[in-house]
Specification:
CATH topology of the largest domain: Rossmann fold
Radius of gyration: 22 Å
GO molecular function: ATP binding; DNA binding; DNA clamp loader activity
Pfam families: DNA_pol3_delta2
Domain AAA+ ATPase: 29-160
Number of strands: 5
CATH architecture of the largest domain: 3-Layer(aba) Sandwich
Helix content: 40-55%
Keywords: ATP-binding, DNA replication, Nucleotide-binding
Structural class: alpha/beta
Protein name: AAA+ ATPase domain-containing protein
Length: 325
């Protein structure tokens, strides 16, 4: 028998002290967990770091992890039959080591069909003595209420703590004095309060600055280096998709791709902008969701060229065509 060791979650993320405190408190006797936060907030990273800490605590080796954990992402088939198979193969069997839970990580619950969620209600309760679920979503309401009620819900919110941004810059090799006040504000604005996006941009700026021998960075350099025009281009693309202007959307996709953005980059930026805009119109929500679903299906089939992304526009059925006759 392996004696549990003291373990804490090791993370490379900043500004997560209260979240880490909550997750560390769950290591000894973990509940089902539901992580909620916008794109780029670090949800999936934290989930994997939590699982790694849990396995370390119980002496589970990397080689053994596949016996204890299965991850279900949005790139996989997540229909009800798939979930029933997973329940049969993974949930109902006692883990090889006593007092160690099996884990099922369900990422991107925003696109998880309600019927598949319904299939999890009873197993979550019946097999709670041997299995734990960890759900990840951008929107709390994407998980049906019966599943939410069985979970410890942890909200990961945007950071407005300037001290955290200073820490990130320092770790990436900067001092705050390396930026003009306008440049510093511009960088935070472009990050959309996402710490992961801010960290990624800081890394890029440090590399550029070192290569070009730049001294103090001003707002013009930030704008030129990080191409803020992409945000306007993405907003235009989102408007075209929402309004069903698919031919224009195809042309806009090609323009963005020519700027050096990949298939995945474009979809992630669209998802982020969608959350920021808080879309409430049903027709608009239908159009963007249908486009994203078809695009990610192509991606799961290793079809990730710009022509495939443009084809996804043609695949979206008009809103009226979905109405019952």
């Amino acid at each position: 028998m392996v004696t549990p060791t003291k373990a804490i979650i090791q993370t490379s993320l900043f500004g997560m002290d209260h979240i880490l405190s909550e997750l560390n408190a769950c290591l000894d006797n973990p509940p089902h967990i539901f992580l909620v936060g916008f794109t780029g907030s670090g949800k999936t990273t934290l989930a994997k770091e939590f699982i790694a800490a849990y396995f370390k605590k119980h002496g589970i080796s990397k080689k053994e992890e596949s016996e204890y954990c299965v991850e279900i992402s949005s790139h996989q088939d997540r229909g009800i039959h798939t979930f029933r198979q997973i329940l049969n193969d993974h949930v109902r069997w006692i883990a090889p080591r006593k007092d160690v839970y099996r884990w099922i990580i369900v990422d991107d619950c925003d696109t998880l069909p309600a019927i598949s969620q319904q299939a999890l209600r009873r197993p979550m309760e019946t097999y709670s003595h041997i299995t734990r679920f960890l759900f990840i979503s951008q929107n709390k309401e994407s998980l049906i209420t019966p599943l939410q009620s069985r979970c410890h819900i942890i909200l990961i919110e945007p950071s407005n703590n300037i001290f955290v941004y200073d820490q990130i810059l320092e770790r990436e090799g900067f001092k705050k004095s390396d930026f003009t006040e306008e440049a510093y504000s511009e960088l935070i604005t472009l990050s959309l309060c996402s710490l992961m996006k801010f960290q990624s941009m800081a890394k890029m700026l440090y590399t550029l600055r070192s290569a070009e021998g730049i001294g103090i960075l001003d707002s013009e350099y930030i704008k030129k280096s990080l191409d803020p025009h992409i945000w306007g281009s993405m907003k235009e693309l989102l408007d075209m998709i929402i309004e069903g202007r698919w031919t224009e959307a195809q042309r806009q996709l090609y323009k963005i791709w020519e700027l050096g953005y990949s298939f995945e980059d474009i979809l992630f930026e669209l998802e982020h902008n969608m959350i920021v805009m808080t879309i409430v119109n049903h027709r608009a929500w239908y159009n963007i969701q249908q486009f994203l679903i078809r695009s990610w299906i192509y991606h799961s089939q290793s079809r990730s060229s710009i022509t495939d992304l443009m084809s996804a526009c043609s695949d979206v059925r008009p809103w009226n065509a979905t109405a019952p006759t």
